[in-house]
Amino acid sequence: MATMESLIGLVNRIQRACTVLGDHGGGGGEGSLWEALPSVAVVGGQSSGKSSVLESIVGRDFLPRGSGIVTRRPLVLQLHKTDGGHEYAEFLHAPRKRFTDFAAVRKEIADETDRITGKTKAISNVPIHLSIYSPHVVNLTLIDLPGLTKVAVEGQAESIVQDIENMVRSYVDKPNCIILAISPANQDIATSDAIKLARDVDPSGDRTFGVLTKLDLMDKGTNAVDVLEGRQYRLQHPWVGIVNRSQADINKNVDMLSARRKEKEYFESSPEYGHLAHKMGAEYLAKLLSQHLEAVIRAKIPSIIALINKTIDEIEAQLDRLGRPIGGDAGAQLYTILDMCRAFDRVFKEHLDGGRPGGDRIYGVFDNQLPAALKKLPFDRHLSMQNVRKVISEADGYQPHLIAPEQGYRRLIDSSLSYFKGPAEASVDAVHLVLKELVRRSIAATEELKRFPTLQSDIAAAANESLERFREDGRKTVLRLVEMEASYLTVEFFRKLPTEPEKAADKNTPVSDRYQDNHLRRIGSNVSSYINMVCETLRNTIPKAVVHCQVKEAKRNLLNRFYAHVGSKEKQLSAMLDEDPALMEKRDALVKRLELYKSARNEIDSVAWK
């Protein structure tokens, strides 16, 4: 079986590694490995002796002191037991700096607190992470939290009371958090802020350790034996009494090791507490917490391993989505580029074929936009009696037509057919815009491409260049359809039209009166009928031409030129695979997390079940 120190020491190392990688929540971060590993939260009211208890456990005077709210940010304190050598401290925010002077540690805590909160009495939930390495400590993780208070003092926000409680609760609510509830012995235990909060979040008392401070400051003739023996307020774990250094000792710079000896002497010589002396004092408290922490860790190993395995699977899946590192040789790079292109092409075709949204907009162009544009063409104005008279007269010239105004008919039909060019070209342009949008969407939806912004741009440029060619082919084709209708009129259509004998015009009648209204109206109606026939034809043939020249070509040959050219750009391949720095950073962070979790799993397995 693993020793207590090795198992807790391992957890400390894992928690520190998690902290370095940002895999913790500072009281949040549900589901993180840091949160799954048990730690001890130190809770108490302001001036309850909370900081003195911590210093007694560590055996060093290192915490800021003062009146009112001194702890204004959570302090995550990791104690690492060493086999010997010098004691030193390290902060996460200054990882390359070792502190051997603990007065400098105190100053650094104060400075780092001010860096976030300013030189005010405000608080922040951003934790300070401190590790202390010493032969005089037990392996333990303690979280020193701001002292609970009942009223805001000058310079503090009115919400400070609730803000502090919310912050403390964000830690002690966690089922893996052991609560060290600090209460001063010279106050009624029933009014203890720490006990009240602990009772709220841990009603069974399974996670709570009670600590009584300032036993030496109780009124003469009173004692705290009923509390320490669990008769006044019972917890699942034994109460521990602490005697902190007096202010006189602090002023004389009495070191903590000497203070521990004085504390031991106090309990052993006390008539009230002598029978409890072996279970009192900071040294006993540290060992008690360490033993309990070891038991909790061992009990939670199966769930910790389960979380680690689940997280490893999630990180592996994320890395698969982000893509693995690319080989440095040209062959591997070319293979990767072509593979990315094929992935993009698959997504693009899915958009067109209905597997993804967007392709239906092309049908919308043909079913809505084109018919609406054809309907708006100004044939009513163009084939009005006034315009028909004008065109027929101009076409006849000095010699009026004898039977039917064929030249007038042709002019009216030709000029009417030219109106179809606008809707035809508009359909080409509308489908072109849809295809461009689908290219953009497809690039964004191709997971494999997200890591290569340069390749994204190159593929987008190549695809859009192809779409421009397809648009030009489509434009030429639809205009040719319109020109074909004008090139050869359907004679049978006119031969089937009903005819009326025309009255001979009097040669002395003015030109403006040569044509009766009914005659002109019939010409306009005949031309309109023919134009409607052509309109129905074009309404069917323009979509066919657009799909053939643009959509089908986009499906078949969107990146063909890119494929042809990319093979000759051997020196540029690495530049095309230049990844987004943010994505590279994200993948590196995931790789480090993966290594951490795999290492943690192996170490926990090897240490816990020896």
Question: Would you mind describing this structure in some detail?
Answer:
It is a single chain. It contains 22 helices and 9 strands. Helices cover 57% and strands 8% of the residues. It is elongated, with a radius of gyration of 43 Å. It has a 9-stranded mixed sheet, with helices on both faces. The relative contact order is 0.10. The longest helix is centred in the middle third of the chain and has 41 residues, at 282-322. Residues 1-5 and 25-30 have low confidence and may be disordered. Helix 1 (4-20) packs across helix 10 and helix 10 packs across helix 22 (581-608). The chain has helices spanning 4-20, 33-36, 50-58, 102-117, 160-172, 193-201, 225-228, 247-251, 256-269, 282-322, 330-353, 360-375, 379-382, 385-396, 406-417, 421-445, 453-487, 491-495, 517-557, 560-566, 573-576, 581-608; strands at 39-44, 75-81, 88-91, 94-99, 128-134, 140-144, 177-184, 208-213, 240-241. The protein has 610 residues and is α/β, with parallel strands linked by helices. It has 2 domains: 39-300, Rossmann fold (3-Layer(aba) Sandwich); 330-578, Up-down Bundle (Four Helix Bundle (Hemerythrin (Met), subunit A)), CATH 1.20.120.1240.
